[in-house]
Structure formats: structure tokens, C-alpha cells
């Protein structure tokens, strides 16, 4: 019996070893130094690159061992436009200086590969021309972070000095919205998208994870905007080319009034790696794919109709940048800023929620609508009330005057909601206002 047991034990171990060997063989990478998970992605990329495949293969094979997975990541998720045009030398130089920054700066060396690959290593942000900016920017901006161990100090040093370093200022006469770094420096001008591309690339050049963020249209329809985000201690914070401080800028009030139910008004962050949707804040007109033009206000409809016509007559239907919906974070930041700002003696904080019915204790009774606040028939503020899925402690907040009569206009065109409420505020520092539709 003992011999049989030993025999069976040996055979079981042998069977397990065979399974492991076969599994390992089946998962072997076709590309030395690159995890097998990239096999199919790289094969597809090389096929789609056509005649330019040899350049991409050269970039991969000539990458130093420690850079090879990063190069595989870049090639695997490269837009079609770049697959057929970008050369090996461009990619190798971009990777060389990105990895130099990773080796030199502590904040970059400690990043997970997933963040380094997606928010430091990419050679472009959205649809801008592909300039070889990495080497020059590494040289230009290293001096501003020299000797700095604090990442916030490094970010602010870059942001405060970049306009003088590159000699680019805000000007609507720039040649294109998504102007590339070198073209912006040649013209000495850019608008918010081009300025944000410059700042993001400058931050990435010294190993600081950064990405574009923006909206295709504010909820008050006064325009769009683009800015930068940086990752600080695993938390994304925003910063502008003309900086105030992290998470502080003129646009926060507009961003905080974003409509979480309307993609036109979402806040998007850009991603090099594919997500479940494009970066709809990009200036290439992709947002018109998900917008019903008939529901737009007359003052902005011609702009979107022009975008639609331009898209129909061009080949710009490829996704050049992917997006992440970060709307709620900006709504939360705005409401947090309201809470942290002191109330005047004659002010109170109004906590507003809209309900479908009088069962105000249930989250399912809430409905997300636009709420406009009017004083003497003049609109003084607006926002979007919490949704059914939001925390029950979340409110739409307004600073209002005490003992004052206000009109609250609740609207949701698609649900045919349009109702007015007249409410007089009390004398306390806070007041809960429940707007019940039925």
C-alpha cells in the first residue's frame, strides 16, 4: 500500500508539472522581454501599421530591456493615424527620456507601471501634431524641479515658470485649437487646449503624471474649457497654465454645476489607453455623435451643426484620445469649496433636493433636475440636484440670504418637468429645502 501511495503521489506531481509546462508554453510571449498579454495587441498593431510595421518592430526590438514593456504598451494602444506614420527613432527617443525621468525623480520611480505607462510615457495627449518634444522639454524643465523632494512644489514650479520658459501666451489668433507644443512656441500663442497640452507635456517631461481634462460645453452654454490634472498621492488634482493653486481656479463653479446626466456637459479626463468612450471634450467634434442637436439652445446650435458637417466630410472619425468621466469629482470639489468658504452674517447654506413624490426618506424618490434660483425675477444661481444613486447626504447647495423670498425653477426637458416653487429662507445658518414635484 505504501508503494502504491508513493507511486500515485509521484504521478500526481508529474501531472501537475506537465499542466504547468503546457500552460506556460501556451502563454509564452512572442516578443522577448514583453509580457504575453501584449501578444495579440502587438500583432493587431503591426497588421494595422501596414508598411510602417517595420518601424514599430524596430522600436520594440531596439528598446532596452527595462523599457520594452513600456514600448509594447505605447505601440499596442497607438491610434491608427500614428501606427502608419510614426517612426522608430521618434518612439525610442520619447521612451529614453521618459525612463531617464523615472530613474532620476523619486515621484516617478515609485509610480505603478500602469500610471507611468498611461500618464507619463505617452508622446501625445489628443489630436495635436506629434512633435518630438520629450528631449527638449526634459532639458528645459529639469532646472525647475532640481532639488525638490515635494511633488506639489515641483508641480507649482513648472506651472509658474512655463509661460516664460516657452514664451507662449493665451491668444485666440492661434492657428488651431489643438495646437502642438512646437507650433505654439513658434506662434507664441495658444488657447486653453494648446496651453494645457504644453503644461501636461512639461510635467510629463520630469516624470510627473499628468493628463488633459475638460468639457465640451458648460451647462450655462457659455463655452468649453480644457485644463490639466496631476496625480498627487494617488489623487487627481487640477492645475492650469496660469495657476492659482492645486484644485483652485475660476472655472470650478462652472465645473461644479455640470449635469451628470448629459454627456455634453460631463467633465472628461484623457487617457492614452482605450476606455469605454472617446475623450468627448476634444476639439475634433466627436461629441456630436451623442448630442441631439435639436435640443441645443439656438445660440450654440450653429456651432455644433458646423462641427457635424465637418465630421461628415472628413476622415476624423478615428478615436485619437480616450476619455474617463470625472464629472462627479468636480461637483464634489465645488460643493466642498462652498462648505469651506465662510458665511456672511446675513447668509445661510441651503441644502436642496428634488423629489418625485412626498416620500422624502427614500433615495428612489429623488430625481436629478436643473434647479435655477431667482431673486426678483433675476437668475442668480443654478445647479443639478442629486440623483437616485447619490448618497442620501448629498445635496445641491446654494449660499442664500436669510429671510429672503426666492423662486426655485425645477426643469428637465426630456421628462417634461417645469415647475416653480416660492420659498422664503429662515434665520438659521442652514436650511433644508425639499422640492416635491407631485
Automatic annotation (TrEMBL):
Gene3D superfamilies found in the cross-reference section: 3.10.620.30
Residues annotated as domain Transglutaminase-like: 184-243
InterPro entries in the cross-refs: Papain-like_cys_pep_sf (IPR038765), Transglutaminase-like (IPR002931)
Record's protein name: Transglutaminase superfamily protein
Organism annotation: Marinifilum flexuosum
